[in-house]
């Protein structure tokens, strides 16, 4: 985004860069900047197709049907000549839900010998066909994509989903709309990465399409998708990710729990300075080494318990589960403060926190296992588990 801003500043009439900057703002959740930027494009060139397509997507996001309708009417009658414009129009109409129009444009592109062997284009056409109930066409196109991209799991996955739709009786085009992105749905991607020893693949971290889809899902996905994306962004952990997560902390309409996960991820990936966030409807600053809580102080001994737990949990627990352990500990301390018990060895309380966190997430764990890992007796761990549970009511929840 910074590079695009620099290019636009240096070359104000470079409309392609300005259109891309509008999309970058949009994917990062900077909606007002996105709208301002696309308006600048259309003020300079009212017929700019990329600008009109971007504006249509932004207006759909805003729910402004009145302003969207004439643009959709114009786009529906547009028949571009250049391949780049045909592709932009096709994908835009698909995103807007006009799958029949999108399908027609994708077929135009596939007739070009130079594009006929593009598996991504076959996928886009298959998605449009599937979304209007033309399952035989979508099957043919996904099989073609599978031949052209035999190493990819994507066509294979959608062929399996198509078969499932048919088995469930979706014969009239009233199935759940399929995404136009040429990648697996987030849930499927995360399931595969979790089961892969090397974890998050390096090439995925560098893929700009995957990255932009993450930013999109962070803004527009459901709660579970946002949780997964925040964790995934924590694995990428570069400057752009840090900026996106810090912007997310300031969104007034996002859930506090999601923001606390994002805050935890930011601290985990090395952002140790003060962080601004909107929590409980109020703008606040989270200082370094300070937990977002009602506690007036944060004792080093309390921090030692967290560090003892998190250092042993490692990759066996995902970031959401690690955050929930932190939240449980803060909740316990907040409830008993100022009468915080003498903590003794940090490892005993850390073991109790891990045990209860595992139970909250329905993970298999035993007192014997956790006491061995922390070098504490079963009796000590059991006593601390009971104490935390009495105060926080974990088993009741």
TrEMBL record:
UniProt keyword terms in alphabetical order: TPR repeat
- Carries keyword Nucleus? no
Database matches in SMART domains:
TPR
Note the segments forming the TPR repeats.
15-48
UniProt keyword annotation of Chaperone present: no
Q: What is this protein called?
A: Tetratricopeptide repeat protein
This protein's species is Paenibacillus cisolokensis
